[in-house]
TrEMBL record:
Positions in coiled-coil regions: none
Catalytic activity, as annotated: a (3E)-enoyl-CoA = a 4-saturated (2E)-enoyl-CoA; a (3Z)-enoyl-CoA = a 4-saturated (2E)-enoyl-CoA
Matches recorded under InterPro entries: ClpP/crotonase-like_dom_sf, Enoyl-CoA_hydra/iso
GO-annotated cellular components: peroxisome
EC nos: 5.3.3.8
Name of protein: Delta(3)-Delta(2)-enoyl-CoA isomerase
GO biological process: fatty acid beta-oxidation
Family annotation (Pfam families): ECH_1
GO-annotated molecular function: delta(3)-delta(2)-enoyl-CoA isomerase activity
Keywords, alphabetical: Isomerase, Lipid metabolism
Annotated organism of origin: Cucumis melo var. makuwa
Family stated for the protein in its record: Belongs to the enoyl-CoA hydratase/isomerase family.
Length: 239
């Protein structure tokens, strides 16, 4: 499902396997456990890089698991369960006391797109992979914290309209032009090398993680309030 590796100051969180990394309760629980370990081991200079194996970064919630419940009502209940269980993953990433980088080497759709968007930096491939919100095509409504995250992270209302209400599939170079991704690179190895390089540059600053997390939350007050992330008073230690 996922692995966590520590390389000096870098934590590398990888969604493993050759499948599409659907976010079912087991995968969500594994992500939460990994993020808890990252937070507990954080120190000044720590950085998280999240990546994946295979064609997909993540293809969103596991709708097959939801439909396997049998009835429409039971499937809807399972989908609601995943929506609620995934909320703490977003909360953990937005409150993590370190810079975070999503190294997107494949497709990121729906909740998988949200997983990527919860990071501070998004790096994509130039040759493969799209960002895609499939809800409008599937006839699903948008969870409130998905909408709030989009408003917090993507400043252009026309970009939000095209992605959310037209179901636009956005490739790497277009994502940079639209202000969604930061940069693009050739191939899976190119994205990962760039992510590690950026992580090392950010880690070299040796920032105190707690103020870093509070600054992030202050940048995105709507989604932070919706996720129940409390504000903390930070003492000034370097003045």
């Amino acid at each position: 499902m996922c692995t966590l590796e520590k390389r000096r100051n870098l934590f590398i969180l990888t969604l493993t396997g050759d499948h599409d990394h659907r976010l079912n309760p087991s995968v969500i629980a594994a992500l939460l456990e990994a993020l808890s370990k990252v937070k507990s081991q954080a120190s000044p200079g720590s950085v998280l890089v999240t990546t994946s194996h295979g064609k997909f970064f993540s293809n969103g919630f596991d709708l097959s698991w939801a439909h396997a419940a049998g009835s429409v009502s039971a499937a809807a209940e399972r989908l609601h369960h995943m929506v609620q269980n995934f909320k703490p993953v977003i909360a953990e990433l937005l409150s993590l006391p370190m810079p975070t980088i999503a190294a997107i080497s494949g497709h990121a759709a729906a909740a998988g797109f949200m997983l990527a968007l919860s990071h501070d930096y998004l790096l994509m491939r130039s040759d493969r992979g799209v960002l895609y919100m499939s809800e409008v095509d599937l006839g699903l409504s948008l969870p409130d914290y998905f909408a709030a995250l989009f408003k917090s992270k993507i400043g252009s209302s026309s970009v939000r309209r095209d992605v959310l209400m037209r179901g636009m599939k956005v490739k790497g170079e277009a994502a940079v032009k639209m202000g969604i991704a930061d940069s693009v690179y050739d191939g899976e190895s190119g994205v990962m090398e760039a992510a590690v390089r950026l992580g090392e540059q950010l880690g070299a600053r040796k920032w105190n993680g707690e103020p870093y997390a509070e600054i992030r939350k202050s940048l995105y007050p709507e989604i932070s309030r919706l996720l129940g992330l409390p504000e903390k008073a930070i003492s000034i230690s370097k003045l």
